[in-house]
Amino acid sequence: MPAADNAFVLRSDQQKASFGHPDFPEPLLTFAPKTWETGFFKRPFATLEINQSFLTSFDTATLKPLLRKLLRHADEQKTTLIELSLDSRGFGVIPTLEASGFRLVDSKVCFFTLINRRKTERFNPEVGSLAMATPADLPAIIELTKTSFCQNPAFFSRFKHRGYFSEKESENYYCAWITNHFDDPLSLMAVLRDKDTVQGYFFYRKGKVHDDLPVYKGMLAAVAPPYRQYKSHLALQTFLFDQLPHNRFFVDNTTQLTNFPILKNHITAQRQLKSVTFVLYRKQFGQD
Fold first, then answer.
1. Which residues of the chain form CATH 3.40.630.30?
2. How many of the other CB atoms lie within 10 Å of CB of 36?
3. Is the domain defined by 111-275 classed in CATH 3.40.630.30?
4. Half-sphere CA count of 272, side-chain side, radius 13 A
5. What are the Cα distances from residue 176, in Å, to 36, 141, 167, 183?
6. Does the global pTM surpass 0.85?
7. For residues 61 and 67, is the Cβ–Cβ distance under 8 A?
8. Helical segments of 82-231, H only
9. pLDDT single digits (tens) 47-91
10. Which residue, among 194, 225, 105, 203, has the nearest Cα to 156 in the 3D structure?
11. Backbone angles phi, psi at 276, to 5 degrees
């Protein structure tokens, strides 16, 4: 059993703060600034992480005073927005988080799958043709991104929540997601072309190694509505598999719990469920 609750140790500097415990090697609660978001949105963003070891070893009564101290630190730093990603196994602490000002704004479902491309089923396009994206495709990719995400009322994410982001900020964010990765040497983007334009795209980015094998994370994908019936999303993925220099690798496909068509695609492709995560936001104390 962990030592007494008063064994928690607070470590902080002008920006970062965390609570550790002598029975655990890693910090159990950590508040830290989000540098990229702070620069992009031009206001202070931060993240609050609750280690899974805390959720399995302590109750909500222990969480409350620690959370209160970290949030006081955040407010002293004038942090505009705090993002907290909570493993679904910690669902029971959501009321405590809500009482501290957090609101549920999004979800993530992660499929993490070992791929042997020699044995993986291919999904060939029934309409159009597949190719690697080129700079000439970028304007059409940006436009498809806007219509699929920014201007699509059926699509919702935390970055479209008007309580936190303006319409212009949402559009800038999704466009930056494309442009920042387009020339990235670790990213690979495939497109579906038909009728002289891009009707779909999918891109992976090479990440960390897992079990001595490379990991490719699915970053963003969009398919024009008339082409979704043809399993274009899966065709784009398996096309990219054939462009990789490995026969065995892991893919990380993360989507939202509300994105039912993509969840069905991942299940159809026998992707392996790894985790379900809830995303919560908290505005700076005193903000509307």
1. 111-275
2. 11
3. yes
4. 7
5. 12, 12, 14, 12
6. yes
7. no
8. 94-99, 138-145, 167-182
9. 999 999 999 899 999 999 999 999 998 998 899 999 999 999 999
10. 105
11. -125, 130
